[in-house]
Amino acid sequence: MTAQKGEVVFKAEHMKKYFGATHANDDVTIELYRGEARGLIGENGSGKSTLISMIAGIAQKDSGTMTMNGGVFEPQNSIDASRHKIGTVVQELGLVDGLPVGMNIFLGRTEQFKKGGVLNMRRLYREAEEQFSKWNFPPMPMRRMTGDLTVEEKKIVELVRALSIDPDLLILDEITQALSLNNRRILFDIIEQLKAANKAVMMVTHDVEEMVDVTDNITIMRDGEIVDTKSCDDVTADDVKRLMVGRDLKGAYYREDQQESYGDEVVLKVENLSSDHFQDVSFELHKGEILGVCGLSDAGIHELAEALFAVRDVTRGRVVYTKSNDKIQSPRQAMGLKMGYVPKDRDKQALMVNDSIEDNVALPTVELIRGKLGFLSPKKRKELAGKVIAEFEVKTSGGGQLLSSLSGGNRQKVNLGRWMIQDKEILILDCPTRGVDVGVKSYIYHRMTEAKQAGVSMVVVSDELPELIGMVDTLIIMKAGKVEQVSKRSSGFTEEAIIEVML
Asked: In angstroms, rounded to a whole number, what is the distance separating the alpha carbons of residues 50 and 28?
């Protein structure tokens, strides 16, 4: 549906932002209206996050003007932007891990809880709890350290924080791919509530179908410029994809076959694996098999991925590499057995964001870049980083560029590429396409299919049901920490049938 154009709540005109010679935003002009949900979409590096950062006060524009609620808007920082009724959930995690959940909700706004210069923590925590309840999110311990939360829980905290200022404009940058199905539904209800209250929402997601369903109008960016703004009544997801990339996406998106296909050889056995988050998980992974795992936020699917690579301790059971009958007990051992792991939380668990692309590629590929005398070869190191950059089309000035200066999608390309260029036999992939655009998703699926055909076995944990339906041979559906159902590709599993089991 399309929102009627009401009062302009926010306007940006002729916005420009440069990073060296790169035009991250080049003469961007956009208007947002009250009662509207606006989609903002584009390939990785198209300038979406830069535009959002300037609106949110995280980055300063080089030129251009902004107005908010009819007044001049020149935010000096994110707290300043929130005072102007702009709430933002950024793509990369934006919380202070060393503070409790409740403090993060009101960070920069704690004066309201002071009396005589003393901070009333009980009142602050009570108000934070009420914010979670107000927006229909499950209760969360307000005194719990934020650093102990999962990626999904942190995203919910960020969202509640943004909502707690009663925003006239709520900006959501790639939040849905961090949320499981049940929490996405809560988010979509919140968007409808805000629209009904005459607020505006700007939503960034690489899930084009989701954007067409949830938003009223979509603004498409390419190479730092706005290409067009379309009513969702007038475009299909394919139309939007074409505008994003400037061409038709050729070839199949997912696998084209509808039958499971893999070898008889079992490469990994999981026997009665249990932890605080899941119980008695057992399965066999075959050579050349893509095995998917899905479930709601309390199902323990991401914790299971960690346990398979021995990143997370288990209370019972074991993971066995069958060729040598070794029990997987450490990530180092798993890597030595030709296993690789791409975690959901790339910035905390996988990447060194303050180091270069070359450093990050070198980390799991030490054996490939070791020279004859055992020293790391700078030449091989540079060549390997160059291979990842070229094959995964990482938008960068070179292998020496810091990861922190890349977009989230380009970081994910480095994260995934450094494993997929290796001769790995087993890959544990937790949300492998999180934060990447449709063109890169298509490429990743193509590389997964190639790897499968070469005999690589994969466990793919994902909150994206279309991704699992499109790619896996076997699907494990988990509910409340236990395996609820196992289905094969030939059974023709559908999104509706999977959701019914999950719920």
From this structure: 11
| Tokens describing residue 319 | 């993971």
Show Cβ contacts of residue 218 under 8 Å, excluding neighbours closer than 6 positions.
38, 39, 40, 41, 211, 212, 229, 230, 232, 235, 240
SS3 492: coil
* Fold that domain 249-338+423-503 belongs to in CATH: Rossmann fold (3.40.50)
Residue type, 257: D
Q: Determine the topology of domain 8-245 in CATH.
A: Rossmann fold (3.40.50)
* Distance from C-alpha of 68 to C-alpha of 10, rounded to nearest angstrom: 5
Let me know if the fold of 8-245 is the same as that of 249-338+423-503: yes
Helix, coil or strand: residue 456: coil
Q: What stretch of H or E contains 8? A: strand 8-19
Give the mean pLDDT per block of 10 residues along the chain (503 residues).
70 90 86 96 86 93 95 93 94 84 93 90 96 93 93 94 97 89 94 97 91 95 92 91 74 85 97 96 98 92 96 96 95 92 84 87 69 66 87 86 83 88 91 83 88 96 92 96 96 90 87
Model pTM score = 0.75
Residue among 219, 217, 216, 156 at smallest CA distance from 183: 156
- Partnered with residue 286 across adjacent β-strands are 266
> Residue 375 carries which side chain, given as an amino acid letter?
F
